[in-house]
Amino acid sequence: MAAWWRAVRGVLLDISGVLYDSGGDGGGTPIAGSAEAVRRIKAAGLKLRFCTNETQATREEFVKKLQGLGFDISVAEVTAPAPAACRILKERGLRPHLLVHNDLVPEFAELDKANPNCVVIGDAAENFTYANLNEAFRVLIGMEKPVLISLGRGRYYKETDGLKLDVGAYMKALEYACDVEAEVVGKPAKPFFESALAEMGVPPEQAVMIGDDIVNDVGGAQQCGMRAVQVRTGKYRPCDENHPHVKPDAYVNDLAEAVDILLQQL
Amino acid sequence: MAAWWRAVRGVLLDISGVLYDSGGDGGGTPIAGSAEAVRRIKAAGLKLRFCTNETQATREEFVKKLQGLGFDISVAEVTAPAPAACRILKERGLRPHLLVHNDLVPEFAELDKANPNCVVIGDAAENFTYANLNEAFRVLIGMEKPVLISLGRGRYYKETDGLKLDVGAYMKALEYACDVEAEVVGKPAKPFFESALAEMGVPPEQAVMIGDDIVNDVGGAQQCGMRAVQVRTGKYRPCDENHPHVKPDAYVNDLAEAVDILLQQL
Prior knowledge:
2 copies of one chain form a homodimer. With 266 residues, chain A is an alpha/beta fold. Chain A has 8 helices and 14 strands. Chain A has helices at residues 34-43, 59-68, 81-92, 130-141, 167-178, 190-200, 214-223, 255-265, and strands spanning 10-13, 20-22, 28-30, 47-51, 78-79, 96-99, 118-121, 148-151, 156-159, 162-165, 183-185, 207-211, 227-231, 250-252. A 6-stranded parallel β-sheet of chain A has the order 5-4-1-12-13-14. The first copy, chain A, has a 4-stranded parallel β-sheet with strand order 6-7-8-11. In chain A, β9 and β10 form a beta hairpin. The two termini of chain A are 13 Å apart. At the A-B interface, α4, β10 and α5 of A face α4, β10 and α5 of B.
């Protein structure tokens, strides 16, 4: 295998499609060998951080679900868009109008939401109604300088009952209507990966991102100077291997294989 | 006034915001002097064509409404996106999946809609549900080469109960999710204006467009080599007069003033 594996001291793991496959009902199925792979990374003394664009639930909720599926994971090990957005909102004195999933609302509990001066959009799922979209639009267009913060920029994702439009599509609708550009929090935004690296205390050249999304995981991590490996699980499709702009540093069949390679080098 | 007015032999009129102001309930209020202005254009022997992006009702329905408000208008005088899209679909053997307003569906009655090979999106209003958007998306992404036809590209419009996102915003969402570019039928698309000119039998240099939308009416018509006048009624806003790209050939307070100027030159 390539020599760069030997420099790795920290591992960033995507969650959905790498640890487990999610169901539309909030359930999910672990990917074979992944729970064991997480334990092996920790036992080897490598730094580990879970780096997800999950915005349909609070960190507490989906960490509990993953623990129930057999994963050794805690809330403090997770980098997710909503808490990152909260920090940004506090720093800049922004009061959000929220267009997010009901289960994500508690993440924003501490913030003042009266007389909003920005709109925060996440994967709102069933909350993406005609009325809610018009309302978010009216709040934005009513600002002297509209501020739109988007928790990710995914195009779509797959659930057991079929493909669903992701937050990025609705972000584009609001961007066009208001002639603004959204600020994206979450993968593939550089500050999001950088904050995950800082939380691990590992420089980018000693870190590897392992994910199933060629653009948001692999492309985003490489932009930050990290190595990035694509798993052939989750939303991976064979045509990803012909992506016009992004080429992973390696492909593996699944997380277990990535950890096999990694631990051979230590 | 400028000399070009004297060359005008044909007039294209936008409807909403020029003839009348629409209410969210399907009703509306005529703009003072507009019904008389339409009669004066016809009495002077000028060619006349109504050129609208209306897609919330069939031509029959909204013409009936305008007649009820006192306008001399017939279905044969109206150029609208849905019939134009129907012609394109027939020519190209396309079977549409429709994401449009319920009241527009009859315009597509003649077309085969089984096993769709394109998606047609209009201002679907309350039909822009999360489920309907996901369904249109799945039809599109399932095609080898997705074909998306959009009845206009407006950003938003005003009704009595507030601003509403227009078809253009939802078009952008689907474009982004499927990585395609929509084909726009309706203003400001060049073929749409050209077909209105052909129906009048007037060359562009002898035609004037009168509308309230700086981009879709004024910019679109000028792209076709026509003159274009913006009325200060409907969705006109003072900041339109500082538009970075589009400058009308004239401003008028309303349609009645445009017709005053026009008839003085004959």
